Request: fold
Amino acid sequence: MKLADIYRKAAQVIAANGHYKGAYWGRPETGVGIELAASECPVCTVGALSVATTGSPVPTVDEVDPIIVDFASRMFGPVNEAAAVVRIAEWNDAEERTAADVIDLFERFAREVA
Reply:
């Protein structure tokens, strides 16, 4: 999958599942006793990139790390793997951050790399 497609899909994941702060994902109460799969739950920015890449909101090193580093580098300038998740998480978890902010950034980066 091309990077632009991953960013578009990550935007769709946030739009469909919701935006989460404080962890890669969170399982909401459905009210009817149905437990959602992790890939159907609200996710953070990194979780959305991971779902778009592997189907799981928890990133795996081999497939997701280069995408996370690219995304963080577009946001903050050059970063290494260790700093990428931390920097994105700080941005994602800011009190004022909204799902629309995350979606807009995914869509902007998708256009840039297309």
